[in-house]
Amino acid sequence: MRHGRAHYQGIQDPTGTSGIADDEPVFVLRSKDRLAPAAIEHWAQLAEDNGAPQRAEQARAWAEEMRHWQGRNYTQYPPDPDAD
Q1: Could you tell me which residues come within 8 angstroms of residue 33 by beta carbon, excluding any fewer than 6 positions away?
Q2: Which single residue of 24, 70, 79, 81 could bond 35 by disulfide (Cβ 3.0 to 4.6 Å)?
Q3: Which among 29, 28, 56 is positioned nearest to 44, based on CA atoms?
Q4: How do residues 58-78 score in pLDDT, each as one tens digit?
Q5: Cα(59)–Cα(57) distance, rounded to whole angstroms?
Q6: CA 32, CA 53: separation in Å to the nearest integer?
Q7: What DSSP string runs through 2-66?
């Protein structure tokens, strides 16, 4: 699994059961990224439009979890998306 950001290389599948190839690019959205919930909701709409309503529902629920996390952990959003 290949990540776009070098410091995410530690996020791997230790069991090798995910079906993600070693050279497959992966994009990670973290809750600390203030844009992540909106990006996931956009993806969910695309999924729904393409015949995957259950995946869309799961993604929307995850986006809501991220918003709750943001509310508990930030009194003010970081200045930049996914600010370190």
Answers
A1: 81, 82
A2: 81
A3: 56
A4: 999 999 999 999 888 876 666
A5: 5
A6: 26
A7: EESSGGGTT---TTS-S---TT-EE----TTSTTHHHHHHHHHHHHHHTT-HHHHHHHHHHHHHH
